[in-house]
Putative trans-acting enoyl reductase (Auxenochlorella protothecoides), 413 residues
Amino acid sequence: MATTARPFHLVLWGATGFTGRLVAEHLAQSYQGKVKWAIAGRSRDRLESLRLSLSTQYGFDKEDVPILLGDLEDPQSLRAAFSQAKVVISTAGPYLRLGTPVVDAAVHAGTHYVDITGEIPWVTTLVEKYHESAREKGIRLIPCCAYDSVPSDLGALLVAKHAQEKLGKKLASITTVVAEGKGGVSGGTIASGMEIASQSVKTDDGRNVYALTPRSAWGRDAEFWGVKWNEDVHKYLTGFFMQVCNNRVVHRSNYFLSYGDDFRYEETVPAKSWLGAQAIRAGVLGFGLALSQAWLHGLLLRFLPNPGQGPTREAMLGGHFKHIVLAKTQEEDGTAPTTIRAEVGWNHGDPGYWGGSRLVLEAALCLALQSDALDADPQLQRGGLLTPASGLGATLIDRLRAADFFFDIKKEA
């Protein structure tokens, strides 16, 4: 089990990247003096520049945030850095190219791990390589801890727990409707999207909704890319592009937490008309096809942000998001299923960056500060390649509520 006798609660790897800087800013703004943390990377000069900027902006001694050096080509340097903390936060992608040495070092150092990836083909390799060794050591490895896929995964957990504890029922399905969202996109996200799409052309890894689930637990679910009317929200729905990550994560959570038999999950965006939904669908599928063509990447990057670039601070702080989570219970006696409606979201920043960086930070702090509560929850896994729901569960929901995210059951019908 990861030791508690370490000088730091957290070490932030990739701190000088676009999202890494935001995580560091959240730490400086909300937790300086309350949490012991360090920043880590290859370039001392860039790390020095970051902490000087933060210390000037937030009024603390820069020496209070130590610098740890490490290099992906030097596994021992990474292990030495990570062995000083309870949790490592990795914000350096694309993870298909840069992520595995960091996870490997965390496992060898006995350090819990979280990241911001949405790269399911890469996560599938982690399940095979590290799940069993991490489980045996009591190390929680939890990728996909930002907007991919905390709101989706914990939203599903919220309605599943309500169904089980309040109604005594399992779930047949969940439809998540991404009802509201305002934000921008970074070059790192674009680069990761290109890696995912290109990889998916070469291999089936990640293309199945059960990609993170043992074959023995596969059901009949599949991605939804059509158009349909939904009576609960009175809108036409089509597939949300991030379901290619989120539904894989939710199905792995269902594998560990047993939401329902042959459970189905879909993630959608609404439109006012059938034609509007068809236009969204065509745009999403067309953009995905373009990302999968490596020969187009150079052209796309002329019009899209490059790695290290992202939305303006004004755009991030002016953003928000809201998901409507619609769950239907399993019924075996011929009666109509109960529909549970919940809402998940945040009104204090964009979902992908200011919000996403806060999500991954709170996941890491959950591991660093609340390990006793996690270990006491009989539903949670104590080690392995996990999901936010199966590794952090309701403890993280409560922590995010304290940070002004909302996770609310609205009604049953």
About this structure: Residues 150-351+404-412 form one domain. Residues 201-205 have pLDDT under 50 and may be disordered.
